[in-house]
Design a protein that fits this description.
globular, single chain, 20-stranded parallel sheet, alpha/beta, 681 residues
């Protein structure tokens, strides 16, 4: 008998092994693979193309030189975060730039935090073949700079650039058109331009939008914040929209949004209706725009004024844009008004795979059901601010899409609280992968044994189908209570509401849930004290695979310092929300502290720091605010903590860098102490 021959993965030909490791996208998995052997280490280093540099910019001796194949380099998260990059290093700025060039010679895509134009002026010439640049800045623009001063160094030194992303870059709208118009040979090469920036208070005016599209006629992807409000001079209307088609006919992605829509401000569900003003956009112009952009694959049109009777425009959109897969609409009305079960408007866009609708005042259950019948390939659906949609209509919608729908967001709908939303989604609970709901703890008593009738045509024969919704006794084969494929859960809370009712609402069994995002909003100055001692984070311990949490209290407003008698300051509210977080086995936490707008302060408090130090399994912690140095030192007690950073990534980031909460030396001392520790793995 011949001896058996064992084969290991190392026996694979080098070409195949290279391709296998190069195909690994998860950073930690690649790092683990590189520890197997020297051969695997060399393969990982030579095939990695995406790299985000962390650490302190002053430590030039730690700059890696083994990633020679990196083409996408992110320098925006270097420490100390938010400080001018070249002023953070003791070396000569030109020397620092040259070292980056030698370490990463093939960079084609660059992300950088540009506090002032100096960094990009020095770095841009190092890679003249750069094709993609993203600037990041949450601090305010220097008022003494001339228009376009932040953009000129890019256009002057990077003649091959085709992608410019300013979506997270605090600047003025009048910085962009002069820069593009003064460098026509570079602007004409741009195919991607992202100006979807929430820092713009009003958005781009009509003339500015026309100048931008004229300067960049070859754009394929355009994302821009525009001023659609007809009460202002220079608003974007019919004529400007028509000029986009003429100037940029090659667009495959068009994202037009009002700045207020970018702020994700919630409307009152009790008052959802038509807005007081109508946008100066006619259906005829919409038809002209859709007809002139046959290559469209993704369209977002999110305005904050009424666009009425828009259904016929979407019928043209379906016929003229055969590649359209993704559609997002805000304040469009009349999108689906079926008559005698005949599909119309948006319901005829049968190729759609992703649909998001916001503030559609006249959308009813019948219109929603018609959309489900017509758009039978939807895998992602978001609905926000539609007061006429009920649990019956939503349940029918998901029933009709039960074979394709995997991502759902239900927000700010008057008749769809947490329990009713989960009841409506029961038919797809064994398929859904990503879910957002508002945690308004409604009652289900009024939902028992409901009947809903609708007509539909099958060929030339009319039938009547009765759907019996007995929401407590599910008789349609949906007895399974496990959300077995749910991996991402997003929840919204009003300040003072508790998390604990979540499990009894139908989400108690999520065996594969890995990430949860919790957003809390409201003014706690109007409240005295919460009814309970804790928000209820410890109840999330029921989810065995939960490892990532985003706890966003950034829109909780209160008193950072001494509160009036009978009220709690923000430190006590932080203790309320974070109590029990140490009982969870979390690997990664993003935390946004609450804010005091009167002093522009979002700071980690003593109770919050004390509770965070109890997260013994934590490896990554990102605090989107400030913190005192001695509070940060509490975090050194977390044994496996490897990555901590303070990021004031909100508008406007505080400018007083000499306070003990933001001083660069304070952050550096903490990072040094963190790096000196021995970590077992």
């Amino acid at each position: 008998m011949s001896a058996s021959i064992s084969t290991a993965i190392n026996d694979l030909p080098d070409v195949i092994l290279f391709n296998i490791i190069a195909a690994i996208s998860d950073v930690r998995s690649r790092n683990a693979a590189s520890l197997v052997s020297k051969k695997w280490l060399c393969v990982d280093r030579s095939t990695r193309t995406f790299l985000t540099l962390r650490g302190n910019a002053r430590d030039l001796f730690m700059l890696p030189s083994c990633f020679r194949s990196v083409t996408h380099l992110d320098l925006s998260l270097l420490s100390p975060w938010g400080h001018p990059l070249l002023s953070s290093t003791a070396a000569d700025p030109a020397l620092f730039a040259q070292l980056l060039r030698q370490s990463f010679p093939q960079v084609q895509s660059l992300v950088i935090y540009s506090r002032n134009p100096t960094a990009i002026q020095v770095l841009a010439p190092q890679w003249p073949t750069l094709r993609q640049i993203k600037l990041v800045r949450w601090h305010q623009r220097l008022p003494q700079l001339p228009p376009g001063a932040d953009i000129f160094p890019i256009l002057e030194n990077c003649g091959e650039i085709n992608s410019l992303d300013l979506s997270s870059f605090y600047c003025w709208t009048d910085d962009i058109p002069p820069a593009l118009k003064s460098h026509p040979k570079v602007a004409i090469k741009l195919t991607f331009l992202n100006l979807l920036n929430p820092s713009f208070p009003e958005g781009f005016k009509a003339q500015e939008l026309e100048d931008i599209t004229k300067a960049c006629p070859n754009l394929k992807k355009l994302l821009i914040a525009c001023m659609f409000d007809p009460r202002y001079i220079g608003f974007v209307g019919d004529e400007t929209l028509a000029s986009i088609v003429v100037n940029c006919p090659k667009l495959s992605l068009l994202h037009l949004a009002d700045p207020t829509a970018l702020q994700n401000a919630r409307s009152d569900p009790e008052s959802q209706d038509f807005t007081p003003d109508d946008a100066s956009i006619t259906v005829a112009t919409l038809i002209e725009v859709f007809s002139g952009l046959p290559l469209l694959e993704e369209l977002t049109f999110d305005v904050c004024s009424n666009i009425r009777n828009s259904g016929p425009a979407f019928e043209v959109l379906n016929s003229k844009c055969p590649k359209l897969k993704c559609l997002k609409l805000g304040n469009f009305h009349g999108i689906s008004i079926p008559v005698e079960s005949k599909l119309d408007g948006l319901a005829l866009c049968h190729r759609l795979e992703s649909l998001s609708i916001r503030n559609v005042a006249d959308l009813t259950d019948m219109g929603l059901i018609a959309i489900a019948r017509g758009c039978s390939n939807l895998s992602k659906f978001e609905i926000q601010g539609c007061k006429n949609i009920t649990v019956r209509g939503m349940r029918t919608f998901v029933c009709l899409l039960s074979r394709t729908l995997t991502q759902v967001k239900i927000s700010c709908c008057k008749n769809l609280g947490a329990r009713s939303s989960l009841k409506a989604l029961e038919p797809i609970q064994n398929r859904i992968q990503k879910l957002h709901i508002d945690c308004l703890w409604d009652s289900l008593e009024q939902l028992d044994n409901l009947e809903y009738d609708f007509d539909y045509e099958l060929g030339n024969k009319r039938k009547k189908q009765k759907i019996d919704f007995d929401l407590n006794d599910l008789s349609n084969g949906f007895e399974e209570k496990t959300w077995e494929k749910l991996e991402h859960l997003s929840l919204w809370f009003s300040v003072g509401e508790l998390l604990t009712p979540l499990l009894s609402s139908g989400l108690e069994d999520c065996p594969n849930l890995e990430e949860i995002c919790i957003k809390v909003e409201g003014d706690c100055r109007h409240l005295s004290k919460p009814a309970e001692r804790e928000f209820g984070l410890r109840c999330l311990g029921l989810y065995p695979k939960l490892s990532k949490m985003k706890l966003d209290c950034g829109e909780v407003i209160g008193y950072a310092h001494t509160a009036p008698s009978g009220q709690m300051d923000l430190s006590l509210w932080e203790r309320f929300y974070m109590f029990g977080i140490g009982d969870l086995s979390l690997d990664e936490v993003d935390y946004w502290p609450p804010q005091d707008r009167d002093v522009n302060q979002r700071s980690l408090s003593l109770p919050a720091a004390g509770l965070l130090q109890e997260c013994l399994m934590l490896r990554k912690l990102f605090i989107h605010g400030t913190a005192h140095e001695h509070f940060l030192m509490f975090l050194l007690r977390i044994p496996n903590l490897r990555d901590v950073q303070l990021r004031e990534d909100y508008y406007p980031a505080p400018e007083n860098d000499m306070s003990t909460e933001m001083r660069a030396d304070s952050c550096s001392r903490f990072e040094d102490a963190l790096n000196r520790r021995h970590i077992h793995d």
